[in-house]
Amino acid sequence: MPTRLGKRVVQRTLAAIRLACVLALGLTGLAGIGGAAAMVSAAWGQPAAPAARPVPVEAVFDGDTCRLAGGARVRLAGIDAPELAHDGQPAQYYAAESKNALSRLVAGAGVQFVGVGPGHDRFGRLLGDLLLPGGVSAAERLVAEGAAFCFWFDDIPPPMQARLLAAQQRAMAAGKGFWPRLLALPAPPDPYVGNVASWRFHAPGCPDAARIARRNRVLLPTLDEAFARGFAPARECTPWPTLR
Fold this sequence. Notes:
- Helix content is 34%, strand content 19%.
- It has 244 residues and is an alpha+beta fold.
């Protein structure tokens, strides 16, 4: 019987083949959002879903979460956005702008949901992407505008991770959104500590950083290097600025 690792290698190989087909055909010539959904599903390494009627977004909660008409809550997969104020914690820098960016993208037009990975997150929200008119990925667009950053999970298809990271690197180089202020923060006296098992990084001196196994530990001298390589800030000990 194939091992679990062997199955994962096969799945990733098939996903890469699907992505090559998508790049060969191109997304720009698609006539309708149903066809775009099938192609983007393949680009994200997912089985192509049947075409569905576009659905309005009735509420946006932050830069990566919204509610569709009918009540389904959606968490955009593969990305994260700065946190709004909650539970007594202050808002993170650019949180309101990220929420506004998602609101602007989905305003006045129906979207089509494309499931990604396991289908739901641990809070019961649908996990996936939203296709805007013309087949544009909302997740990729937010990253490209510097309103969200890559957020790795092992069940996110590698083609999706690669495209999001490429969009992030371009946004960093162009100084989009939150990147100018974030990358201008002073470097700490000691490097940030990354974990290649989770692709999160921690501020120096964070207790969680000390618990990273030696084989998974990587030192990251600057935020620029951390984000360019695809690491995302850990929830605890994050260097992300807050608004007080």
